[in-house]
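Morning!

This is the sequence you dropped in the shared folder:
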Amino acid sequence: MGLFTKDIHSLEDLYQHGLQDIYYAENQIVKSLPKMIETAPHGELKRGLQQHLRETQDQVRRLEQVFKLHAQDARGDKCPAIDGIIQEGDDLMGNVDDQDTLGAGIIAAAQAVEHYEITRYGALIAWAKELGHRHDVPLLTRTLNEEKATDKKLTALAERRINPRSEKGTARGGHARRRASRSSNRAAASRRKTGSKAGGKKKASARRA
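The structure's back. Tokens below.
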């Protein structure tokens, strides 16, 4: 149904529905990550996704603890938002052949998931504090911190995978400019030397005259 539906009449309703929403999302992410790991073209990306799969499984268990604190069975409510994000990533993986491009696309798809989770957990923590669910806050905060850390790692990985090309290009351009500068300096020095010799000959000729 998504987060905002007609059956929500209070902040408590919104909070409980938000828990169901993110519980569904985390379980869908657990199901989708193995395919991303298998498709990832680079070892470092595979290892990062494998670590995140383990973290996500822990996050599911953490949410189950939150439900238990409310004397409820853990259950998810279908979330079109995360379904759409995951489907977009699946479509990308099926349509890209170039390995470097595929890696960049997988990182972007994984970060789209992270950003969704970061916004959801941030809202849940704020609501939990306002509602006085103080025992929920540490569990949700731990997960939020993990999501932020994963997002930073993915950003760093994207920069290492994508930027080296531009850095190489910049380096090649820099080398070329330095070579051109050295050549220009040598030419200028040669002209000065030639001019100095010519000036000396003119002065000697004038003295003889």
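Headline: The chain has a mean pLDDT of 84.

More detail when I'm at my desk.
O.
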